[in-house]
Amino acid sequence: MKIKKIGWTTFLITTDQISVLIEPLKLKEEGLNIPKTQADVCIFTGCPKEKYDDKVQPDRREKMMEICTPGEYEVGGLMIRRGLDDDFYIIDDKNLRTVYMGGVQKDFDPEKAKHLGDVDALIIPVGDGENFMSYDTLEKVVSNIDPAILIPCAYKEEGKKSTELKTRDEFVKYFGYANAKEEGFVNLARKRVEEDQKSVEVIFLK
């Protein structure tokens, strides 16, 4: 499972069989352009009211599949799940698990982040502000999930409209992630941490 950042809270997940684009319209809401992308599945926290198929074309399937409601969806070897009262997605590729929380609300209950199993990658907004969870809530969520890899998104440097957000440096300093790194993508097959590694690995995708 390869995770690549398109921008803001938009990500592209690819495997040998399928590609999944997450929240492409969030780019537009933030005043950013949607790049031309190929994907077999598009995931949304809320069902889209705008067209986006002029920018996003099917990859390996004839027709693109759209997911925006709770349920379980098995497609191309992936299991994509969203609980009935949840605004986050769990994406499983065999024994690899990614949790996407880019669309969670500011009043998100950290208790919902418990019992999610072994999470290899957590994608989550770290800018605080009016639309995203506070640092206090974020700390509880990360503690409850205890991911191997934390992939931050939605912080001040990225947005054009959300100027009240905290910066990447503020996030790193507050949580003490001194070893945070920057990479072009994350390949979970190669990024599995050893069982005896206790600290989360923070990777900013560029």
Give a written overview of the molecule:
This protein is α/β, with parallel strands linked by helices. 14% of the residues lie in helices and 32% in strands. It has helices spanning 25-29, 135-145, 168-175, 188-191, and strands at residues 2-7, 10-14, 19-22, 37-38, 41-43, 56-57, 65-67, 71-75, 78-82, 89-93, 96-100, 121-125, 149-153, 181-183, 186-187, 201-205. The strands form 3 sheets. An 8-stranded mixed sheet has the order 8-9-10-11-12-13-16-14. A 6-stranded mixed sheet has the order 7-5-3-2-1-15. The protein is globular and about 45 Å long.
For the structure shown, list the relevant keywords:
206 residues, alpha/beta, eight-stranded mixed β-sheet, six-stranded mixed β-sheet, 16 strands, 32% strand
Write the layout of secondary structure elements.
Layout: E1 2-7, E2 10-14, E3 19-22, H1 25-29, E4 37-38, E5 41-43, E6 56-57, E7 65-67, E8 71-75, E9 78-82, E10 89-93, E11 96-100, E12 121-125, H2 135-145, E13 149-153, H3 168-175, E14 181-183, E15 186-187, H4 188-191, E16 201-205
Parallel strand pairs: 3-5, 4-6, 5-7, 11-12, 12-13, 13-16, 14-16
Antiparallel strand pairs: 1-2, 1-15, 2-3, 8-9, 9-10, 10-11
